[in-house]
Design a protein that fits this description.
single chain; 253 residues; 12 helices; 0% strand
Length: 253
């Protein structure tokens, strides 16, 4: 399968299946019960700290969600990715990988993004009909690398909750300036490397570079916790601009 054929336009229902797969993975991956104190400071809108559901109810829900995700993956496809992500989620939450320093935390998150992306990509390409080629494999590895090297952006607005929990993050260990530089350098590098990988034109190049410019401007000019909470969404927009590069390639950008 050629790299520009990853987004075939003849099988729209496959994309619906891919969206279903992502939603099921989201249900499994976001049902945490051991971070109520942290979330009460960082993300008070989440279900448990906002008291829309109790920790015990969430555990009961997990008993239903996890086997449901596995059974759904047997039908939709992406079973290997689903099971592997279950293992990664267990390591991240139950074994304390999220609290074992920024290297392990980012590594597990990057691994998780590879599983998300691989499963959805296989479904969109036609599960059981096509295998991911070398280009796809390299792209998945690059996605994992992007998350591994830049996800510390989420630690910037979460600094108070992380400190309360005792979680070791880059801004808490190395300070604010070093943390921002550790985000900026790989963002610039990936914004150049990814368009080169997909051999896009000038317009395709400007997608991640433009998003990176706006994101990095905010990152260094607006440094309060409230500012970082908004800047996080600019990081998400930059990541989306990277994800859209295969489509840009196909559309001739």
């Amino acid at each position: 399968m050629h790299n520009s054929e990853l987004l075939g336009d003849r099988h729209f229902p496959r994309y619906v299946q891919a969206l279903k797969y992502q939603y099921l993975r989201y249900l499994q991956g976001t049902s945490q019960t051991d971070s109520v104190l942290e979330d009460s400071l960082n993300k008070p809108w989440r279900a448990i700290p906002s008291k829309r559901i109790t920790a015990n109810q969430t555990r009961t829900l997990l008993l239903l969600v996890i086997p449901s995700v596995y059974l759904a993956s047997l039908s939709l496809g992406g079973t290997w990715e689903a099971v592997t992500l279950m293992l990664g989620t267990w390591m991240y939450n139950d074994l304390g990988g999220a609290d074992n320093g920024p290297f392990v935390r980012n590594l597990l998150n990057g691994f998780g993004y590879i599983c998300y992306s691989s499963g959805s990509m296989k479904l969109a390409a036609g599960y059981g009909q096509h295998e991911l080629n070398e280009t796809s494999t390299w792209w998945l590895a690059m996605i994992g690398g992007i998350i591994f090297t830049t996800l510390q952006m989420q630690d910037m607005p979460d600094i108070h909750g992380d400190a309360k929990r005792g979680r070791l993050t880059i801004p808490l260990i190395y300070g604010d300036r070093a943390a921002r530089l550790s985000i900026a350098v790989p963002v610039v590098a990936w914004s150049i490397t990814c368009p080169i990988f997909w051999s896009v034109g000038l317009a395709g190049f400007m997608l991640p570079l433009g998003a990176a410019t706006v994101f990095l401007t905010r990152l260094f000019l607006f440094r309060s916790v409230a500012d970082d909470s908004l800047t996080w969404w600019f990081w998400c927009s930059w990541l989306s601009s990277v994800y859209i590069l295969p489509l840009a390639k196909r559309c001739g950008f």
